Automatic annotation (TrEMBL):
Residues 201-808 form the Exocyst complex component Sec10-like alpha-helical bundle domain. It comes from the Eukaryota. Residues 457-477, 659-678 are annotated as: Disordered. GO terms for biological process: exocytosis; Golgi to plasma membrane transport. Residues 460-477 have a biased composition (Polar residues). Pfam families: Sec10_HB (PF07393), Sec10_N (PF20667). Residues 79-195 form the Exocyst complex component Sec10 N-terminal domain. Belongs to the SEC10 family. One of its GO terms (cellular component) is exocyst. InterPro entries: Sec10-like, Sec10_HB, Sec10_N. PANTHER family: EXOCYST COMPLEX COMPONENT 5, SEC10. This is Exocyst complex component 5. Keywords: Coiled coil, Exocytosis, Transport.
Length: 817
């Protein structure tokens, strides 16, 4: 702290103390304490100097200047301040020296103490190392003592165990001697074996004695077998008595178990079950409990099951009703088993074993009983009548029963069935039916097909009888009286097959067996569709054959009366109408065949193909079989289409023969202008072709349509050539022929057959041989050499062939070429 100053600077006391520099040191506070006592007037002048009071002016450099005259010095106590500052410096130097000296002393003390401390630490480290060595030796000793104690404990425990075993052996020998006293005598046994409160202990001891006795008896039997001297047979008596006692005890426990079961005393049931588990692992108790369930011993329950599933109609109830009945029955069975679970868990020490026995008994007794009533396998020799459902009813019931029983197995497995293979057991219930089901499926499909065919024949017969007023000839030619191909029936075939395939998928678990069964069933469909379509086409062909026979029947000669000729013409018109109707009927049959084959192919692609692909060769083999079936249908259709062409051409020839007049192509030179209309025969033929082929354009498709129209066009071209060779042509007749050819060409253009169009174009060019002058024939041949062969033949039909000496002209033309 700063002390009070005096008038002399030399007499000033100490200005500083070491304490002034401790704590929160502030230089401003220290300096203020030095000068505030020497400059007290400046404390009050600070505020005045700020406000400009006292007549002073603040200069720009910060100094004050009086407003009037000169002023006294700024710091009158400057000398005193300098003295104070000098003293302060001296004291500060002295303080620093004192501090430095003290620091040196402290450093020496610290060094001394540090050396002592290091020495102490070194000594402590040596002591700690010794302690660690002592602890290690102690730990080793403790471990050795512990091992010794453990060995002693093991010996003591072994000795105690041996003592206990010896005591138990003594007791067992004593009990064994009691059982070995005399055969069948169980009256002199220890109270242990008759005390109901110690049944568990008695059962345990009896089982041990029995095991020992039976083992000894077994060893004696082996010794006797090798020819050794016969030992004592006393333990055989004990074994027999123990067996009798165990049987009696087991029966007593089972009786107590039954009594407790009737009273629903689960604790007593659990106690008995636990004791009985020592007898054959409790198998007798578990089987006894399961066998005593009402659903296995109550006849009313079994009758109710059959009533629930079959109702009053028996197997005639139908698969849907049977399915609902099985669902209800299996649901009841599952609930019954689920209720038994709580009791089994509370009573038996091995509940999984009990559940296994229970579920097995349910499937083998209760489920098998209802399946035996449902699944009566029919004979393949004497099939059940279709009126009673036929084989299809059996197969549908089999599928329903299998599917519902599989669902029951899954439900029972979720409830709990121990280690029982529920799926394998369920499969075994249907094994006899699944092995034979492919044969039954094929037989069922054949039965359905035969039944459907009989139904269709009956309908056709009934329709034929309803039109009995029509003559037999007319009825035979009326397609409506015959059985027509129906796409609906083919769709029904596919539906039967699809249902059979679904059963194959249900019954066949392996891809190989599934593919085999699917192929067998699909082959039945191929046979059915092929046979149905082929027979339908054959029936349609019969109409064409009958129309041809009727047409040939009314062919007459030329030397007949007008009345006979008129009657024959009328009959020919009727035959033509019958042929036209037969063509239309056959075309419709072909169209329906094409639709049916498309349905078959789509069914194969969507359903069958994916089931056959997993097995090598199965898909390719089925494709080949399907190709063979379709080829047989195409063969029948091809024959019928050729017959249709024959029928068409026969009518064309009839129309040309009856309607074409010689004057059509050799009109008289009467001065009238030539007729540029097509001949009446041409008009009639084109009208007939347009009418009869209308159905062909809609019924046929693709290659069938193209080949049919191409063949018809070729036959028409050939028929017209043969027809025109019967006439003689003059130039005007040639023009009319050219008009007929144009009419025919325009019609056949609708065939979309370029080769036919080309032939009729050449016919139009060839007709020019009747029009041009004889001297222009050479230029005609030169312009179109392709017509030369037919043209040379037709030139001879010119009416001026001889008069104009065209033969010689032709020879010269041919020689020049």
């Amino acid at each position: 702290m700063v002390s009070q100053k005096t008038s002399s600077a030399a007499s000033l006391p100490l200005l500083f103390d070491v304490e002034d520099f401790k704590g929160n040191f502030s230089f401003d506070a220290l300096f203020g304490n030095l000068v505030n006592e020497l400059l007290p007037e400046f404390k009050d002048d600070d505020s005045d100097s700020v406000d400009g009071v006292g007549g002073q002016e603040v200069l720009p450099n910060g100094n004050l200047r009086g407003l009037q005259g000169s002023s006294p010095p700024m710091f009158p106590a400057v000398d005193e301040l300098l003295a104070v500052f000098k003293d302060s410096c001296k004291e500060l130097v002295d303080l620093r020296r004192q501090i430095d000296a003290r620091l040196q002393n402290l450093k020496k003390d610290v060094a001394i103490q540090d050396a002592k401390h290091r020495k102490t630490l070194t000594e402590l480290e040596k002591g700690v190392d010794g302690l660690f060595d002592s602890f290690a030796r102690l730990d080793t000793r403790i471990a050795s003592v512990g091992q010794t104690a453990a060995k002693i404990g093991d010996h003591l425990q072994s000795a105690d165990s041996q003592r206990e075993t010896a005591n138990q052996t003594i007791e067992l020998i004593k009990y064994l001697m009691e059982f070995n006293s005399s055969p069948g005598d169980l009256m002199e046994l220890s109270p242990l074996f008759s005390d109901d409160s110690r049944v568990a202990e008695a059962a345990s001891i009896a089982q041990k004695l029995r095991a020992f006795a039976e083992e000894d008896v077994g060893k004696q039997g082996m010794s006797s077998a090798v020819g050794a001297a016969a030992p004592s047979r006393g333990l055989e008596v004990a074994a027999a008595n123990l067996q009798d006692y165990c049987n009696e005890l087991e029966n007593r426990l089972l009786a107590r178990f039954d009594a407790a079961s009737q009273r629903r005393e689960l604790s007593i049931m659990a106690e008995c079950a636990k004791i009985l588990s020592q007898f054959n692992r409790g198998t007798s108790a578990m089987q006894h409990y399961v066998a005593s369930r009402p659903m296995f011993i109550d006849v009313e329950v079994m009758n109710a099951d059959i009533k629930l599933v079959l109702g009053d109609q028996g197997l005639q109830a139908g698969p849907s009703n049977i399915s609902r009945g099985l669902s209800t029955l299996y649901k009841e069975i599952t609930e019954t088993v689920r209720k038994e679970v709580a009791t089994i868990l509370a009573v038996f020490p091995s509940p999984n074993d009990v559940m296994s026995i229970l579920v097995q008994r349910v499937l083998e007794q209760r489920v098998t009983a209802i399946l035996d009533r449902l699944l009566v396998k029919p004979s393949l020799v004497n099939l059940p009548p279709v009126e009673q459902g036929g084989l299809l009813s059996y197969l549908r019931i089999l599928a329903v029963a299998y599917e519902k029983t599989q669902e029951l197995a899954k439900e029972l497995q979720s409830v709990g069935c121990g280690d029982l293979d529920v799926e394998g057991l369920t499969e075994s219930l249907f094994l006899g039916h699944k092995d034979d089901f492919p044969e039954h499926e094929q037989a069922s499909l054949r039965q359905l097909y035969q039944s459907k065919m009989e139904e269709l024949r009956a309908e056709a017969q009934q329709q034929s009888e309803s039109t009995g007023t029509i003559s037999r000839s007319k009825a035979g030619l009326n397609p409506s009286t015959q059985q027509q191909i129906s796409v609906t029936i083919v769709t029904e075939f596919v539906r039967w097959n699809e249902e059979a395939i679904s059963r194959c998928t249900l019954f066949s678990s392996q891809p190989a067996s599934l593919a085999t069964n699917v192929r067998l069933v699909f082959t039945c469909l191929l046979d059915q569709i092929s046979q149905y379509l082929t027979e339908g086409l054959e029936r349609a062909r019969e109409s064409l054959n009958e129309a041809a026979a009727l047409r040939d029947r009314f062919v007459i000669g030329t030397s007949v009366s007008k009345r006979v000729a008129a009657a024959a013409a009328s009959a020919a018109e009727a035959a033509a109408a019958a042929g036209e109707s037969s063509i239309r009927s056959f075309m419709i049959a072909v169209q329906r065949c094409a639709s049916s084959v498309a349905i078959l192919q789509q069914y194969f692609s969507n359903t069958i193909s994916r089931l056959l692909l997993p097995v090598d060769g199965a898909h390719a083999a089925s494709c080949e079989e399907m190709g063979t079936a379709v080829s047989s249908v195409e063969g029948a259709a091809h024959k019928g289409l050729l017959q249709c062409i024959d029928t068409v051409m026969a009518e064309v020839e009839r129309l040309l023969s009856s309607e074409q007049k010689p004057t059509d192509y050799r009109s008289p030179d009467d001065g009238n202008p030539p007729d540029h209309r097509p001949t009446n025969a041409c008009v009639r033929v084109v009208a007939y072709l347009s009418r009869v082929l209308e159905v062909a354009f809609t019924a046929l498709e693709g290659l069938n349509k193209q080949s049919f129209l191409t063949e018809l066009g070729n036959r028409l071209h050939k028929g017209l050539l043969n027809h025109w060779q019967k006439f003689t042509f003059n130039p005007s007749g040639g023009l009319r022929l050219k008009r007929d050819i144009t009419e025919y060409g325009e019609f056949v253009r609708s065939f979309n057959a370029p080769s036919i169009d080309e032939k009729f174009e050449l016919l139009g060019i060839m007709a020019n041989v009747f029009i041009v002058a004889p001297e222009s024939l050479a230029s005609l041949f030169e312009g179109t050499p392709s017509i030369r062969k037919d043209a040379l033949r037709f030139i001879q039909l010119r009416d001026d062939y001889k008069t104009a000496k065209i033969a010689s002209r032709l020879n010269s033309i041919l020689s020049e070429s």
